[in-house]
Structure to design on (421 residues):
């Protein structure tokens, strides 16, 4: 057991006696030359560090046509997203390129740090400290001042030990990441299977021997011959009933459906600013109403299971005749329907809302009511089983993530010593 001492920084705790502690500014300096031209654009991810922007298909930020003000980054420079440092958006870059003007770029001024060790140290141990040092009106706009960062204390093991720690963590983290990727692939497969189960049931029913027929409905090739096509506006109408006394404010979420804003905050452990003006224009929602939210073109419409009110920006749909709402809940969540709805929304990039007129362009169909009930019950049961397995896989990811964080922290702070090979 090596001898330990107080690091002087609560977020680092005890460190080996032979390790040093110093301020960041004595070893790094902000150096942010402008784009020299012909450079790749880099992005900083909490999970991945610095990577080429075009290597990711989930980066929806639009690169400015004018990158003259972008900052030049050399391989081995330390890059910080000053507004998200408290979330872990800090990294040593393995790439040469340019980054957003909103980032800080630091050069190392001496050879004290082994870069990979420093990368692990700052990304694993400093989130809480960066949160303490950041300030702003609201969380999403917190800003880390460069002066505060300059005076942050960092630990400095002997350089040969830094390399040993970094090499060990590279190996162990690669093993964890490979296991994580495998589990994530299983989750993705389960999600694909769930989508196929939904599509199969809501377009073909549950009887494999039923007579199928081609219909004049563009988004489904065939359906049971006895199912009836009906224009959407004949099956649902646009309800404009205003907020009733006592209505709680609701929120539309693809993850949770239509729930109260209070419940949403509890589930997500986050805060929502409740509206206190214009509430008289909010729309009344009842159980089994459907809500067209701003993101309905991405994930179908949401069925409400509660009473309350929702922002007037949304469209509330009520059935015109007896239906099984749970059947249409699954239909609206099917890939086929979502794709059809997307076909009416070529203006989404302009930020316009999805309207009832878009919904009305996509024809629907009616199985017999008893068949709607059977299909809905089957999908409730089947999708619950799939979700249960998926949730277990997601819990495994949570455990792996916590283990990886703990592993990095223990070794970069010297609380554990790399095993002798």
């Amino acid at each position: 057991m090596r001898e330990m001492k107080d690091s002087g920084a609560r977020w680092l705790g005890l460190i080996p006696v032979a390790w040093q502690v110093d301020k960041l500014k004595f070893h790094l300096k902000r150096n942010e030359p402008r784009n020299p031209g012909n450079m790749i654009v880099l992005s900083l991810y909490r999970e991945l560090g610095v990577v080429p922007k075009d290597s990711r298909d989930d980066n929806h930020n639009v690169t400015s046509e004018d990158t003259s003000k972008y900052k030049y980054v050399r391989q081995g420079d330390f890059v910080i997203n000053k507004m998200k440092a408290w979330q872990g958006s800090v990294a040593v870059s393995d790439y040469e390129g340019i980054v957003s003007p909103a980032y800080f770029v630091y050069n190392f001024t001496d050879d004290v740090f082994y870069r990979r060790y420093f990368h692990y140290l700052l990304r694993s141990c400093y989130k809480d400290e960066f949160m303490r040092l950041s300030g702003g009106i609201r969380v999403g706009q917190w800003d880390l001042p460069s002066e505060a960062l300059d005076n942050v204390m960092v630990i400095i093991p002997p350089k040969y030990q830094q390399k040993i720690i970094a090499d060990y963590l590279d190996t162990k983290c690669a093993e964890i990441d490979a296991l994580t990727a495998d589990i994530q692939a299983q989750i993705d497969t389960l999600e694909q299977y769930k989508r196929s189960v939904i599509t199969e049931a809501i377009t073909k029913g549950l009887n494999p021997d039923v007579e199928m027929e081609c219909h004049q409905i563009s988004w489904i090739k065939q359906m049971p011959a006895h199912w009836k096509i009906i224009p959407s506006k004949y099956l649902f109408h646009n309800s404009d009933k205003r907020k009733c006394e006592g209505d709680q404010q609701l929120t539309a979420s693809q993850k949770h459906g239509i729930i109260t804003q209070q419940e949403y905050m509890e589930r997500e452990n986050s805060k929502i600013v409740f509206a206190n003006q214009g509430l008289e224009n909010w729309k009344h929602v009842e159980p089994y109403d459907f809500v067209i939210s701003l993101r309905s073109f991405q994930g179908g419409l949401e069925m409400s299971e509660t009473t309350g009110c929702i922002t007037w920006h949304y469209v509330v749909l009520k059935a015109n005749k007896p239906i099984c709402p749970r059947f249409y809940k699954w239909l609206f969540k099917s890939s086929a329907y979502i794709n059809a709805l997307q076909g009416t929304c070529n203006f989404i990039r302009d930020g316009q809302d999805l309207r009832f007129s878009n919904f009305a362009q996509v024809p629907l169909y009616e199985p017999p009511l008893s068949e709607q009930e059977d299909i809905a019950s089957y999908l409730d049961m089947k999708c619950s089983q799939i979700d249960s397995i998926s949730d277990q896989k997601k819990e495994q990811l949570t455990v792996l993530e916590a283990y990886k964080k703990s592993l990095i922290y223990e070794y970069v702070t010297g609380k554990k010593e790399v095993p002798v090979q």
About this structure: The chain has a mean pLDDT of 89.
